[in-house]
Write a structure and sequence with these properties.
The protein has 117 residues and is α+β, with helices and mostly antiparallel strands. The protein has a three-stranded antiparallel β-sheet with strand order 1-3-2.
Length: 117
């Protein structure tokens, strides 16, 4: 059907995620809260890193370095720092400084989240 060799190569390398290779459990109530909150794209990227690094490993919180955020989001440090600040101000994530290591968690109490107007 496709005679272009480049297309065939891309077709072979196509992503095929399977839950057997790992998945993240998130309560439906939180997913519905996510659907109703307006936050920026960069904030979403950072939020997904927090979710992946916590819920993805069956943890409530985790120490996440800026370099981990950079690798997963492909964003620059100043943008990550700004997104983290906004998410903490909006009450969506919780950031704790434990012995100069930053620990992040999702604030499950979505009733206090402060979205964009």
């Amino acid at each position: 059907m496709f005679k272009d060799k480049k297309w065939k190569q891309k077709e072979i390398e196509m992503a095929s995620p399977q839950i057997e290779n790992g998945h993240t459990d998130i309560a439906n109530e939180l997913i519905e809260a996510f659907a109703g909150i307006r936050i920026s794209g960069e904030e979403w990227q950072v939020l997904w890193v927090v979710i992946r690094k916590t819920y993805g490993w069956h943890k409530k919180s985790d120490f996440i370095s800026l370099s981990q955020f950079q690798i997963l989001t492909k964003m620059k440090k100043p943008n990550i720092i700004r997104a983290i600040k906004k998410l903490t101000e909006k009450g969506v994530i919780i950031k704790n400084d434990n012995d100069n290591r930053l620990n992040y968690s999702l604030n499950k109490d979505f009733t206090i989240w402060k979205p964009l107007s």
